[in-house]
Design the sequence.
C-alpha cells in the first residue's frame, strides 16, 4: 500500500486561499509516511504556525508542511525542484470481473476467505468460523512478510549511538 507521488514545483505547486504554496493530496491517500524536497525531509507544523511563518514571504526549498483539507501547505514557498510524498494509499477499485489490484495479486486467498466469511454470515452458513480463521491466518502471514522485509535485508542500517573523532 506504499506509494510515491512526485510534484514538479513549476507545474504542481500553487498558492491557496491563504496565499501559501500548496500541493493537492492524491485522492487515494490514507496516511503520509514522509514528505521531502531536495535533501530536506519536511517537518509538520500546526496550521497557526504555518500561517505565521508564511508572513515572512520566504522563498526556497520547503522545510515545513501542514495539511488543510485536500492540500499540503509548504514553507518556504518553493521556486524550483520537486516535492516527493511517500504515503500509504488505498487499493484500486475492482470495477469489472477481470479487474485486479495489488491486493488481488498479492493476497488472493485473503480476499477469497474474507468474502466467504461475509457470504457465510449472510447465508447463515455453518462454516463461517472456518472461513474467518483462514482469513485471519492469511492476514497474519501477509503482515509477517511485511514485518520481515522491514526488519531484515540490506536496507537496514544500525546507527552508532556515539561517534569519536581522532
Sequence:
Amino acid at each position: 500500500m506504499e506509494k510515491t507521488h512526485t510534484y514538479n514545483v513549476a507545474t504542481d505547486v500553487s498558492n491557496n486561499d491563504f496565499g501559501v504554496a500548496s500541493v493537492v493530496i492524491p485522492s487515494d491517500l490514507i496516511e503520509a509516511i514522509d514528505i521531502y524536497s531536495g535533501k530536506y525531509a519536511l517537518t509538520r507544523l500546526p496550521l497557526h504556525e504555518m500561517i505565521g511563518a508564511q508572513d515572512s514571504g520566504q522563498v526556497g526549498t520547503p522545510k515545513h508542511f501542514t495539511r488543510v483539507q485536500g492540500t499540503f501547505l509548504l514553507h518556504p514557498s518553493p521556486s524550483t525542484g520537486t516535492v516527493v510524498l511517500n504515503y500509504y494509499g488505498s487499493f484500486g477499485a475492482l470495477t469489472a470481473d477481470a479487474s485486479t489490484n495489488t491486493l488481488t495479486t498479492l493476497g488472493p486467498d485473503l480476499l477469497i476467505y474474507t468474502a466467504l466469511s461475509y457470504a457465510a454470515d449472510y447465508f447463515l452458513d455453518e462454516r463461517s468460523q472456518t472461513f474467518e480463521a483462514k482469513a485471519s491466518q492469511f492476514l497474519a502471514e501477509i503482515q509477517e512478510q511485511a514485518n520481515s522485509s522491514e526488519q531484515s535485508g540490506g536496507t537496514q542500517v544500525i546507527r552508532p549511538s556515539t561517534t569519536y573523532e581522532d
In short: The chain has a mean pLDDT of 85. The first strand starts at residue 2 and ends at 8. The chain is about 35% helix and 25% strand. Helices lie at 9-12, 47-54, 102-106, 108-123, 128-151.
